[in-house]
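DATA SHEET
Item: assembly model
Revision: 1
Owner: S.N.
Input lines:
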Amino acid sequence: MAQPKTLVITGYGINSDNELAYCFTLAGAPAERVHINDLIEGKKKLDEYQIVAFPGGFSFGDHIASGRVFANKIKGRLGDQILGAMERHCPIIGICNGFQVLVKLGLLPSDATKEKPALKQNCSLVQNDSGKFEDRWVTLKANSQSHCIWTKGLETIEMPVRHGEGRFIVDQSETLRKLWGHGQVALQYCAPDGGEAQYPFNPNGSVDGIAGICDPSGYVFGLMPHPEAFLNATNHPRWQELGLRGEGAGMKIFRNVVKHLG
Amino acid sequence: MLTRIEIGQKTETTESRGRRLKNTVFEDLQIRVEGIQTIAVYTLELDLKPGEAEHIANELLADPVCENWVIEKNLAQAFDWLIEVGFRPGVTDNVARSTLEGIQDLLQRDLGEAAAVYTAWQYVLTGALSEAEVYTIADKLLANSLIEKFKVLSKAQWVMLGGLQAESNRVASSHLPTSRGIVLPNDTESLQKLSQDMMLALTLEEMQAIKAYFSRPEIKEERKKIGMPEEAMDVELEVIAQTWSEHCKHKIFAADIDYEDELGQHVNIRSLFKTYIWKATEDLKPRSPWLRSVFTDNAGVIAFTEDFDVCIKVETHNSPSALDPYGGAMTGIVGVNRDVLGTGMGCRPIFNTDIFCFAPPDYNKSIPERLLHPKRVFKGVHRGVRDGGNESGIPTVNGSIVFDERFLGKPLVFCGTGGIIPSRLKGKASWQKEIHSGDRIVMVGGRIGKDGIHGATFSSLALTEASPTSAVQIGDPITQKKLSDFLLEARDAGLYRFLTDNGAGGLSSSLGEMAREVGGCRIHLDKAPLKYPGLDPWEILVSEAQERMSFAVPPAKLSEFITLAKSRGVEASDLGHFTKEPWFEAYYDEACVCKIHMEFLHDGNPKLKLKAKWNPPTLSAEAKSDRDTELARVLTSRSLHEDAMQLLGRYNICSKESWVRQYDHEVQAASVMKPFVGKAADGPGDAAVLRPVYDSKQGLVVSHGLAPRYSDIDTYHMTACAIDEALRNAVAVGANPDRLSALDNFCWPDPVQSDVTPDGEFKLAQLVRSNQALYDYCIAFGLPLISGKDSMKNDYGRGENKISIPPTLLISLLGTIDDVEKCISSDFKSAGDIVYLLGETQNELGASEYMNMLGIPDHKGGEVPKVDSHRALQRYRLVYQAIQQGLIRSAHDCSDGGLFVALAECCIGARLGADIQVPEPLSLEKLSDAALLFSESQSRLILSVSPEKSAEFEHLFDTQGSETQKTVFRLGQITENPRLNISRKTSLSETDDKPRLLFSETIETLRLAWQKTLND
């Protein structure tokens, strides 16, 4: 099969697009950074790509709430295209601000009991319990019961979080029950020894320490931590002490999806 | 039509903003509030169809999971007091702008030019509070009256009003823009008064030069020809004042100085800049082949790899940060980002640095009029730099915070940015650019308002209670991010020939500079996009409204340039064109309102002639001996253990982690050495290392040094120490000391002798000495200076109430590293490793942090540290070699607080202990226990080496250290037992050589002492 093409959406304050594009390209899915307005103006179309990525950043400066104004733009101007991508099982990833966009768009977690995905928000990412933006490395535990194609085969993985609004909450306990029941919880924050995480290991106070979720199909994935910020081993805060060299462990997530499509 | 929408939290659990605020109110103001509920208020001034307001609230403004909303009603229910804070009319409201765009996306229609949104925050308070307390909370914590207004209502007042209703916040202006001629009076007094009244910050000599210019027959003739009045126009005086401001022209660094040294010998210095700074670089050029463009562009450019160049610039934003810490600091950081964006053909910013100097946050004396409490300045500046950097997607990789009471007069806010650019673009060297006659002048980015008018002239004056409110700008990182994304796209498409930043002095300054490249320029001010009507032509020309850059666009590319800008959500306006003729011309509605000869504009200012006299605070041999006896008496009476623990928690030494962690320091995924290192990532990093080209192992190292306390003894040594600190920080992580470039940022109190500055000659001498050291040490270390800046009026008030900052020089270094995988961090790595101290320890406690803690100032505390550059460089080269050979496992610089603090930090980072037995002697001098532990002798490093490598390591230093004096001292061993023991092998009496324990403490106790002070 030909190499899958990755669409990395940019513009309006998105800022982790360069490194994310690099990761996909390195993993074997050459990435193109495309301004959201080129999609809105029709110069490019979502269905030209086999992977869609929403990078981190501060779209619209987190004004009103993180990801909201950008999600509103997609919903208003590109809603059909994004639903179409979902229906054709195009892998979609949202990282940090991209995750906030997908959640506020209602694309994640998406209700497994509904036949068709609808753009209705039932979870949120709100201000960290600590009340402040923080940049720190966290340890994540992958849920082996999850359908997520992006985290398949992962056990634990380290990467940085860098956000002020990453606290995952749900509208009602039923939503949380469904998330677990349908294998939609993909990643949880854990203590460095693998145990349950309290602050700062759970950096934002997310319910059940949830750091990343997927849709019922496992193709759409969103997470607050930044795998693309661990592309080289030297990104790790203790690479010297641990003797890490070469590629960073964050690359596993991107290699996973390329392998899945391959 | 006005619609008021309020958004609040459904339950307490997501009210983290209110909870945090409640704590801050108690901590900062000692006022107890029972509860704070926060409500976002959006006022829409636009025509809506029925149901649309509900739709907007539901879909755009409120989070369906955790928030609720009301329209034309108030959410506040059970409460005691209510505070609502909104912007003053005309102040940039970034959230409002995004909201308006969101509404257009939601309703899928263009709302037109007249549509507006205003945002505000409401704080709903419960608790038994007096009206005065609530006003204090509003005024001292929530609102900055410079840019914001607030309402305070008790529950009863709120009931009486029937709640809060929608109000417009539009700028009400009926002012018709005009330009006027201004007669320049003959008598000197009136001429000087005119400069003051118009806030021109020009001296009498400069005003006289301007008057002479307008009296020239050929100028009169030229003006008559085009129907301009004979007298100067207000626009013209403003343009000249901006161009000639200290901020833009660096008049003190260009002045003729008669310098008299301590022996009464005179030296005539024709420009400090040319004599010392520029000269150092010129002299070093032959051995610095990596230099690309220095001192000519917005930032200094050096070669990085075969394919990429990098650049760096550091700016200060002191005066605006004093008045509006948040806005001032944010403008500082996004402003220096633009310098980098405007360098060469446009560099992509890849890192920020920030260094702050404040008065201590626990300052408890009275605060002079117009100044803010240092704690508020600290918090606001930190938040501004944090938001500015984080939202721009530029990692903040290196910085520090220095405290001294005198920074109450002016806080120092140094903001730096580095950038990267392909070395060649379309076959041309990317650091070069040009303008052709006929090229269009295109302004890109934010609109022009009254914000930041007179910023350049205002920063060239001392802060007083009368400082203008208009001088503050509000930054918007998102507008700038859009601008920078667009810029890089347009660069790669080859859509422009030249670009520069619109910073201090606004269009007047950027176009004035650009026009020099070609001849002149002709600009139509009525074509400039405004935030609101009513600006006079001069205001349009000098406004420092943010996020703007000026481009020279070939006419053939104009439409493509403007179309791309529009598609990227960026406003681009064609304002005129560049000309061959040497005139700076501006028009408004077809009338010429400004025509100044370029030569006069740029070179017409009379050179300053200044006197400097160096009167060092010297001590006779007898006085020195008395001092040393007295010091010895004081020191023996103290508990070393208590002093050491107290020192570790001092503002200048303690951990700033909880503040630094709020900066995104690894966006762009290039980070190799982070601000915090070690087992729990909380040990101090010495310098940042980045790997901006992911598939290459080549790296950049970024470090800095500053030592303002030493200025109390001698600015010459202050400068040497700042340079050495920056260098040893870089060397500690593995930088090649022979491949670094430096930047100088001077922040000085006013050094011009006058009634308000009676000690100007001394302060200028301090500046001369600092420059002399800068030259001497840059040459000795082989550090070419590639860029710099000065800020010369860092004083508050006059007479007895005057507060002047200590003379401060920040040295920033940028260098390249061939293989980042060889870099090392400061934390000890494993038990059993051998600990070494490199460099001698002298009796250099003068103006040290320790003496500062004991309240013994300047030379009364002893000698100031001095730098032996020859031996230091030899040592640094050996360290580099040892790191390259993989002999060293950790390295940490020895700095404030001396050997003790450095050892403690290495242990804290590792959560390991160390058994240290300090060998004797550490130098030719006899050291007291306090000097041994706390002396701040320069050029020292703490290293650790694995036992297998120690012989090879020692051999390297023994055989290659050609000096007879030792430079490497084996201190002891790293231990699993987490305790730091420091003992001395000989006692002071030298009769008994049993090791004597000086200090012993657990690492956990050290960690807590180091972290608690500024742990937020």
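QC remark: Chain B has 32 helices and 43 strands.
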